[in-house]
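Deliverable D5.2: sample structural annotation.
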Amino acid sequence: MAESKIHSIAEILAAHPCFAGLDPAITDLLGGCASNVHFANGRYLFKAEEAADTFYLLRGGDVALELRMPGRGRLTVQTLHPGQVVGASWILPPYRWRFDARAVGDVRATGIDAACLRGKCDDDPSMGYQVMQRFLPIVAERLQTTRLRLIDLYAPPAEVGNAL
């Protein structure tokens, strides 16, 4: 059986778990904001405090989300894999990245222009609501992952007699 080929950006968006199941008219519209990108091993997709102007649908390779910790260097908070989204800060003012995102191996992704997408969401509140429904769980999951990672790093060790 021959594999079907994906030919358009809209089809790539529709096939990604983040946008799977959206009305094809919406993925067609979103396709105007998207392009395919590649990042070599070790290259940063973005750094904390920079403008959150593009987010990425990860299609190949891994990306480490990192925090710079004074006196401790870089801390990898989470490693993202194909099928996940790299970057959710584009959706919340002041539209600045909260983490650094570094390619671990070669990375293939679809980059989406955040200002373009925000404009389309503003123009079509129904579409904006559907996009928000897909991104709020990502934001919540990243917050929880970061919280747990920082607890692991900074929580005092449990005393032997008080472990439970």
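Annotation notes: The radius of gyration is 18 Å. The chain has one domain: 9-152.
The annotation will be released with the project's public dataset once the embargo ends.
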